[in-house]
Write a structure and sequence with these properties.
The chain is mainly α. About 70% of the residues lie in helices and about 5% in strands.
Length: about 300
Amino acid sequence: MSKATRNVFVVLFLALLAAPFVGYPIFLMKVLCFALFASAFNLLIGFTGLLSFGHAMFFGFSAYVAGHAAKVWGLTPELAILAGTLSAAFIGLVTGWLAVRRQGIYFAMVTLALAQMIYFICVQAPFTYAEDGIQSIPRGKLFGLIDLTNDTVMYYVVAAIFAAAFALIYRIIHSPFGQVLKSVRENEPRALSLGYNVDRYKLMAFVLSGTIAGLAGATKSIAFGIATLTDVGWQMSGEVVLMTLLGGMGTILGPTVGAAVIVTMQNYLSGLGSMVSIIMGATFVVCVLMFRRGIVGEIEHRFGAKKG
């Protein structure tokens, strides 16, 4: 890890610690949950080159499982989040085994179809309560000791989960496994000719991405006490694509920045109703025209060019 990267992580860590003193914990928790979701998606599209139109199936189904585990089974929050994350990993293994057999737009369409299947399961399954969703999910006590009803305490738990998952993603990207993923992204036939089992690597990346996305969804349901069909709908899959592209696909911090921008717009422009979607679309168009690499990607490119 370079000195500049280390400094960025130190600043990010300090920002996470100081954030609840300058902002609303509820808003900050929402930003972190979606930042983690976008970072998980970026692991797949930005570093493996696989575009998924169905990542909400991991985020939403995991939220349902975690909410049901906490409210009905009475599990502690850490076990409920674990249950949701494991369910996302299982779905990722099954759907990934089917999806990685196709490439390009066909892969994207398969993930969309599979996500719609999961959506209709959530509509019909009795434990999801259809359009009502699972409401009043208790936060409980972490490890049976730490009461999470206080928003600031809950924020630090969410921040810790985000930091740990973010560090895991960074480690994956900079490991030999991550280098193989990048080679698959850049030139899949060449990676195959070098003897790598490309489908196996893509499946592993898909499962990892889905698992971390599930972790984000499970954490969100515990933090906000609700899991609804919105979490598993195709619109959510579209939002995470927007967050990743806006922030900078293939960058470490890009998805986090993109998620922060989108969530901030949704939160502070909510009074405008349907106009929010129009403003978000216009913002995306402007960024695509002016920052083709995304916000963070363009900054990194220009800084690198000047440094060179």
